[in-house]
Amino acid sequence: MRHDEWDRRYADSEFLWTVEPNRFVVEELGDLPPGRALDLGCGEGRNAVWLAQQGWQITAVDFSPVGLAKARRLASARRVTVDWVLADLLRFEPPADAYQLVLVTYLHIQPEERAAVLLSARPALTPGGQILVVGHDLANLSEGVGGPQDPTLLYTPAIITAELPGLSVQRAVRVHRPVEVDGQTHHAIDTLVRASRT
């Protein structure tokens, strides 16, 4: 999707998704000591705002000005400071050796574009820094609910791991996330990969 398409999606509702952080972000990162973090493709800012609430100094990047405007409102309501950056991830070059954490959640773009974004994240990490990648899994098409229906945009643990060369993978799994649909609980299937720069 182009940024103007995302602008229209974000403009259609108060918040397109919940304002609460993704459950896997909380589970995986809640115990980390805060430092500097980079959220690539932050959307409406829910994960960036939560990290700021935990004491992280965070830079959050997205190409949708409408999404970032809503993210700023959320940060203001939660009384936290985030460095919001309007940029296309395919052209954004993060500084080297700058972040203890890079976060990429539900970035569903063409595979070669996603690989380029993930490749650019590696040098942005400090030694020992970690990257967390979460997104809709390919199995979600047949076994889960929601998410993109184009299989080329979906993740698997093996695909994402292969796109993080030179990093030490601590966790690469499929995870289930409860989703309410028409008053009933279903489960979406996501890929979760956590890796560090050694």
What does this structure look like?
The protein has 198 residues and is an alpha/beta fold. The protein has one domain: Rossmann fold (3-Layer(aba) Sandwich). Helices cover 31% and strands 31% of the residues. It has a 7-stranded mixed beta sheet with strand order 3-2-1-4-5-7-6. The termini are far apart. The model has no long low-confidence stretch (mean pLDDT 92).
Overall SS class: alpha/beta
Q: How many strand segments?
A: 7
What is the count of distinct domains? 1
Order of helices and strands: HHEHEHEEHEHHEE
Question: Helix amount, in percent?
Answer: 25-40%
Radius of gyration: 16 Å
Determine the CATH superfamily.
Answer: Vaccinia Virus protein VP39
The order of strands across the largest sheet is: 3-2-1-4-5-7-6
Low-confidence stretches: none
CATH class: Alpha Beta
| Sheet having the most strands | 7 strands, mixed
| Principal-axis shape | globular
Please, what is the average pLDDT?
92
Topology-level CATH name:
Rossmann fold
Which band does the percent of strand residues land in? 25-35%
User: Do you know the CATH architecture?
Assistant: 3-Layer(aba) Sandwich
Number of helices: 7
Condensed summary:
This protein is α/β, with parallel strands linked by helices and 198 residues long. The protein is 31% helix and 31% strand.
